[in-house]
Amino acid sequence: MPKITGTGHCPSCPIRHLSIFADLRPERLANIPFRPLITRYKAGETIYQQGERADALFTVRGGVIKIIRSLPDGRNHLLYLETTGALIGWDSFLEEHYSQSAIAVADAEVCRLPERDLNRLRHADLELDNAILRRWITSLRRAEDRMVDLSTRKGNEKLAAFLLDWCATAPPGDWVDLPLTRGELGEMLGLTVETISRFLADWRKRGIISEEHRRIRIDDLPALQRVAAGGERRRNN
Amino acid sequence: MPKITGTGHCPSCPIRHLSIFADLRPERLANIPFRPLITRYKAGETIYQQGERADALFTVRGGVIKIIRSLPDGRNHLLYLETTGALIGWDSFLEEHYSQSAIAVADAEVCRLPERDLNRLRHADLELDNAILRRWITSLRRAEDRMVDLSTRKGNEKLAAFLLDWCATAPPGDWVDLPLTRGELGEMLGLTVETISRFLADWRKRGIISEEHRRIRIDDLPALQRVAAGGERRRNN
DNA sequence: CGCCGTTTTGATAAAACTCAATCATCGTGG
DNA sequence: CCACGATGATTGAGTTTTATCAAAACGGCG
Questions:
Q1: Single pTM value for the model
Q2: B136 contacts in A (CB within 8 Å)?
């Protein structure tokens, strides 16, 4: 059960510098005419569900949230993994239904921004409008990058590239939480559980990565980069 | 060589009903403070190039334009095929560089909207802002749909689904221009030339489609829909 | 007519999936 | 505290799908 933990106060929000309100002038900030609900979700709980009426966006305050699209035949595709600072739920801007579901994969906390309020605010404040615009373009680019990756890279390259990206922020050689099952990795990269498992097992044996609990560590960065670049079995142009 | 054919006059534009100016009130329309350049491109010519400074969007007035991303290793991925009414060149809103190239695959005509002008206009007019917002979100959704297709469908399903989609507007059984090489189809769907060629040859032999010059006709719609749905070799959930 | 890019076709190999069985982990309830 | 069941992970064998390489056929166009 998600738990409402309070209402947000944007001016003093600890993650404001990561949010769309980062560049808002103080006087504007003070005038934000609503107090967004802050809700905590445990791993596995749903923030919003595909098909539901879409009337709010959410800023991710912490945790990890997967954005998935469910297909009629029961399969899923994992579109994005969102972490602290992300803005999710764009569909609300069309005042329609969510075309995706958002589900916490690690305990998460989100701040609920009603579309009406946010949209009003956007029209009143140029900086906010630009911040949203910027997010939207980067989301689109990210989606396009993913399309390219999905269609041009091989399985091992995709998985290696994802791990490199996921661990990129941490100091090299550090343990990094990776709260995803093999199945979820597969749903993200367009591969099956077994294929994912085999790649990871192979890399573990070769000392490229280590896994423990739900964490991962890259032990041989150059080797993994080589895999990501397609260096196993060379393609020439 | 692209040829500038004149400057557009939005209020009287023949494709205005398809453009972002469709819902603009007449008095607003009359006040559009610029006359966009209209340019004609022959098949193969480039509207804008990945890496170039991005300072303008384009409304497609006619023809077919492919939006591609080029990879360092020389391969391309065809992101979208745009036709009449589409708005392309979103990158300009970030005042950065185009992350894609736009190339005519059939003779095309576009209307150039400088980002500065368009953005100013957007802030002055709520309806225009909403029209653009609506396009944002649908672009993002379309990209997400493509991600799902690329990662969950098999080659024949992807190709069949594309043909169905491409021919959807024409009356069933009609010839439809399809100005794409097998290579381009492959770059769009993440398949090789040979694979595309084999599927099409197979469907031709089975009387599902016909091809002639650079046109295609769907002769057995249900059969093609069956293929697109994964009906060849049944998958049982 | 001859050239060049595209398409087709065949043979073979690589990549990934499917099916099946086993193992590991972890939380629950007796 | 331990046995049990459920979920996830691993591994193997066999198959399907797709890529790769190579060669021939086709089709416009100068």
A1: 0.90
A2: 93, 136, 140
